[in-house]
Amino acid sequence: TVDSISDTVPPKPNLLINGGFDIWQRGTSFSALGLNTYTADRWIAYDDAGTNATVSQGSSEDVNGLLTTPLKYERHTLSTSGGITQRIEKGDDLYNKTVTLSFWAKAASGVSSLRLDILFKDSSYNALNPANTYASASLAVTTSWQFFTHTVVIDESFTEAQREGMMAQVYIKDMLDINTYYIAQVKLEEGSTFTGWPHVDPTTELAKCQRFYSKSGVVETYGLSNNSGTQVQRQTVKFPVTMRANPQFTYFNTFNSPTAAAQAVGNVSPQSVVVAIGGNSGDHVEYTWTADAEL
Length: 295
Known about the structure:
With about 300 residues, the protein is mainly beta. About 5% of the residues lie in helices and about 45% in strands. The strands form 5 sheets. A 6-stranded antiparallel β-sheet has the order 1-4-7-14-9-12, with no helix packed on it. A hairpin with a 5-residue loop joins strand 19 (about 260-265) and strand 20 (about 270-280). The relative contact order is 0.18.
């Protein structure tokens, strides 16, 4: 198998998070993608028109000897742009290095094409317009699983100001044909060769994802005291892991008894947030929440 090299050489770590598409905190099916829709954790899917493609979690199957759940990208009409991408927080870590991007892919029918690319952007998401291109040639995808690799040398002359806060963005793009594409085991690593698919601990990988996006694992419940009259009390919600930055916190009231409700948010930090609960004496509220600190 392709990753048999790992029998003698330990696989290098994956610089991408959730490259195996094992974690889908936001759900497992997405339509009307638009330009930036997070699907599987850390992965953005995009489509130029917003209605031409859908993304979902594929069925588990054997890919090169590993039980894998691929990402499924369905193209419904011809398009000029479409694919998946992941933003890498510290793009400067790739500066002056040779890196290899690898993955498995197949199509539901016929032969379709796609390309790989690596772009660099500043902290405001502006493209840095490198002098060199890191895009691959067009790759032919058939109905059988195929393994693709793309090695590039990141040899740009970025200025010190550009490198400050610079991010990299990996693309599997130009999925334009009316077809269904399956993508699995995406890996970015240092060096000029694929060194094998690393063992991925699900708990560790989830924690890496939760640094960027997290949600309530259970319904939060809060009961107001039996003091008389209308009141507002506060509950601290602690995140499972420290997030990358202060997140955008959103709550969803799921049950009010009879008038209690989560009303406001304050003291937002990467570790926790304070939720204000308002209502009458003896009421209680149930709510869920999401915390988003994506790049």
